[in-house]
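Hi U.,

Before I forget, here's the chain from the pilot set. I'm dumping it here mostly so it's searchable later in email.
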Amino acid sequence: MSHKLYTDETPAEVKNAKGIHMITQSTPNGQAVQVLLEELKDVYGTSWTTTLINISTNVQKSDWFLRLDPNGRIPIIIDNTRSPPFPVHETSAEMLYLLKFADKNDEFGFKDEWERNECLQWLFFWHGSGAPYQGQTNHFTKAAPEKIPYAINRFHNETLRVYGVLEIRLSGKYTGEPRDYLAGDGKGKYSVADIKTWPWVKGWERSGFTADEMKQFPHVMKWVDRIAARPAVQRGIGEAYQQK
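Structure:
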């Protein structure tokens, strides 16, 4: 792979970075990787550097950015310990990359192959179903130039449906054993499956869902609060990732 990742337009803090460098904005997808890095810091002392961008300016569609992620989305991580540097895009792929190379004890993953597969199922469920539905809910209720009732209702209801899937899982509806986390034996273990999903679900009110609607998901709401109490989670959505 020829090293054409950086150009004169690439910000100096990006092309001169050492180790892991993250380009992000504190959206739900950005927060997922931010939180995982903060969790890794608490366990291993993991270090990285960060560039904050404002996606409302479309900087992520610039040539220098598209060289790192042709899809023009945040977040991105770039592993500068490799030569040439190795960029990783797509939130779930970034989290799995960090599990592989920065989480040697599988603190946020699983060594057992069946538990690991279960974790992947829930990670991919939210990546492929939850995040797109809630993202479209946000778009059609807040950003679309015209209000389209069919689109608003469809994505609103589909997001409630996937919240219901999480409720089935966490409540133990079909197993008789409530869970604390999405993947792992017994009550489960806090993992990347939770870290990927949580930043979206905790924003239910911002997405236009009412407290009455959320009453049907009591185990999900307890799970939201359980994860929110973690110090690394608070840092991962906190002041360090806010635009100045």
